[in-house]
């Protein structure tokens, strides 16, 4: 099975901003994304957990985008414009995909 290089962008952001972020991803040309709830963590502000929260509105979500490297910078710029003034983490890593056409790349 042949793999093809791609980029994986992961964005942790406050749940109420998820729609604004996904609109920015769409506008930047992201071929798709996945949104998952973040259950807890530990960082600059110390350990925290979603446990005991009355609503999901106060929690974080993780938005993951896998895309062709040629699209990465424009999508990342749009995403960071949403995240920058808020609580959030943005990371980008190299990855490999099996079906590049599903991620905005040429069909291999």
TrEMBL record:
It holds the Pfam family P-II. GO terms for molecular function: enzyme regulator activity. GO terms for biological process: regulation of nitrogen utilization. It comes from the Bacteria. InterPro entries: N-reg_PII, N-reg_PII-like_a/b, N-reg_PII/ATP_PRibTrfase_C. This is Nitrogen regulatory protein P-II. It comes from Pontivivens ytuae. The lineage of its organism: Bacteria, Pseudomonadati, Pseudomonadota, Alphaproteobacteria, Rhodobacterales.
